[in-house]
Amino acid sequence: MKLISTPGNSIHGELTLPGDKSLSHRALLFAALAHGESVIDNFLMAGVTKVMLDALKSLGVDWEFKGSRLIVQGKGLDGLQPPAESIQCGNSATTIRLLTGALAAAGVPAVLDGSPGLRRRPMKRIVTPLQEMGVPIQASQGGTAPIRLEARLKNQLLRAVDYRLPVSSAQVKTCLLLAALAADGTCILHEPQPSRDHTERMLAMMGVNIQTDGRQVKLTPSQPTQLRPLHLSLPGDISSAAFLIVAALITPGSQITLRDVLLNPTRTGLLDALRAMGGEITVQNSSERGGEPVGDITVTHSRLSGTQVDGPLVVRMIDEFPAFAVAAAYAHGRTDVREAAELRNKESDRIAVLSRELRALGANIEESRDGFTIQGDGALRGGLVNPSGDHRLAMALAVAGLAAQQTVTVQAAEIIGESYLDFVSGLQSLGAGMRLES
């Protein structure tokens, strides 16, 4: 499919977003590990969550959809069954890393694999600490998928660890916290910078003794592990909201409101960065939903100026850099991104691909080892781009076309369905000039 984005229309109106992807993954998996029925409203159905659903089905977990409501019959850690075949995780690093932690705790033998893109992503960062805990696990020779876990005696607990993560990663942290549910004592994890804390919040809701102190997380398991079922409604995905926020900021005459969006402070770095650039972004009706802060975000077209992003802010907006780079290209002045080398380990090498594709649209962008520099002049030319199988790049490049001088055509745009099935229809409902063609 080709996604054609045509400039000339301002966008206006209100939109409610699908459930947050990170929360959907965790709620689904944690519900499977609980004892009893969990009910999750506004669950995100997309490519990356479907592979987790299929994986849990292969482990003997029953679930069903009723509208946007997901009902999961939890089996508990001791109720997971060995899969008949290898578990295919598609493009989803969240699925393979979180599921590895759960299977490590359960002692269930399995092989976890995925797409060629997933096989390029680093898995040694979970395999090494799991081996220190006594998990019988191996990755491929290059430290990537496939991952193989051997069976472990059900009464054999894992070793508690005091471990320093080499990178700030909520996926790695969650993997190890799940494994810690089967440890013989308190596990302590240290991060270079605090990453998103959805796992800590949700496990605490389910009765786990877990404590966070800045960059340190402690989990003290109870044996046997008994997680309480979940009954919650998920807020809108802040990472999906990022594209709509940038679309409104760069498109003249635009103003939109996004309802019930996740506003966890570990995820709102993009809002801080865009406000620093002069973006008019306001939050109203703040409340709590499913143990997470939420609110309505109103965004008005703004003249943006260049800024600098580094340090802890990078971790708080790590998934939003494709959208942010588009905003920087339309800003006036220099934007520097540093200390963001982890972007090279996403669905694509996001530093290299962002630089290449934005340059094709007329942006003045140069990549560095750990980031990029954009000299913005308030405009992009337009043209033909390829997101290289990266859903967030596809959406960011499509948004870039809404304010360009000419049409932007995004090739292989079906990859957007990995995380945001209603992306095009949502923007169309706001008045954007956007259409799909086969």
Task: Describe the protein.
Strands 22-23-1-24 form a 4-stranded mixed β-sheet. A 4-stranded mixed β-sheet has the order 2-15-17-16. The chain is an alpha/beta fold and 438 residues long. The model has no long low-confidence stretch (mean pLDDT 97). The chain is 30% helix and 27% strand. The radius of gyration is 21 Å and the shape is globular. It starts with a strand and ends with a strand.
Write the layout of secondary structure elements.
Elements: E1 2-6, E2 12-16, H1 21-33, E3 35-41, H2 47-58, E4 62-66, E5 69-75, E6 87-88, H3 93-106, E7 110-113, H4 124-132, E8 137-138, E9 147-149, E10 162-164, H5 170-180, E11 187-190, H6 198-205, E12 209-213, E13 216-220, E14 231-233, H7 238-250, E15 255-262, H8 269-276, E16 280-289, E17 292-300, E18 308-309, H9 312-316, H10 321-330, E19 332-337, H11 350-360, E20 365-368, E21 371-377, E22 383-385, H12 391-400, E23 408-410, H13 423-429, E24 433-437
Parallel strand pairs: 2-15, 3-14, 6-7, 10-11, 18-19, 22-23
Antiparallel strand pairs: 1-23, 1-24, 3-5, 4-5, 7-9, 8-9, 11-13, 12-13, 15-17, 16-17, 19-21, 20-21
Structural Rg: 21 Å
Gap between N and C termini, in Å?
Answer: 4 Å
Shape, per Cα inertia axes: globular
| Largest sheet report | 4 strands, mixed
Question: Roughly what percent helix?
Answer: 25-40%
Coarse structural class: alpha/beta
Q: Assess the beta-strand content as a share of residues.
A: 25-35%
Strand order of the largest sheet: 22-23-1-24
Total of DSSP H or I helical runs spanning 4+ residues: 13
Strand element count: 24
- Show unreliable segments: none
- Average the pLDDT over all residues and give the rounded result: 97
